[in-house]
Amino acid sequence: MGWVFYSLTTVALFALWSVLGKIALRTATPVQTTVLYGVAAALVALVAIGFGQRTAAWSVGTLWIAALSAVCGALGLLTFYLALDRGSASLAVPVIGFYPAVVAVLSVAFLGEKLNALQVVGVALAVAGVALIGAAG
User: Fold this and answer.
1) Measured between alpha carbons, how far is 7 from 5 in angstroms, rounded to an integer?
2) If DSSP codes are grouped into helix, strand and coil, which group holds residue 57?
3) Which of 10, 40, 58, 119 has the fewest Cβ atoms surrounding its Cβ within 10 A?
4) Whole-prediction pTM value?
């Protein structure tokens, strides 16, 4: 299976995660929900390893960027739940969903990737979309 399948599956799972997260916050706190996410993530990782997903050597020298990425993801998860807890999902999630446009720009700046004209238009439309959602909220 290729990247498109996994990307679209991620979209579906992230959409469910967002809606179910908002529902969960009716009875759980953002911190409780973040802890449960961490437990679920660990279980998913163990299952993936059990199915033979490759793992590399576990050394600080090789994994420090991965660890930094994980910390950013965990903090982002907490702020995601805080945004859902304090705002409506229909406004918070689309604004949070702006991050791929930020990734596109950072990829050009730091990873040497190139955006074609259509991708630049997509980033511009994402910026416009967030501005419109922000203005409505």
Assistant:
1) 5
2) coil
3) 58
4) 0.81
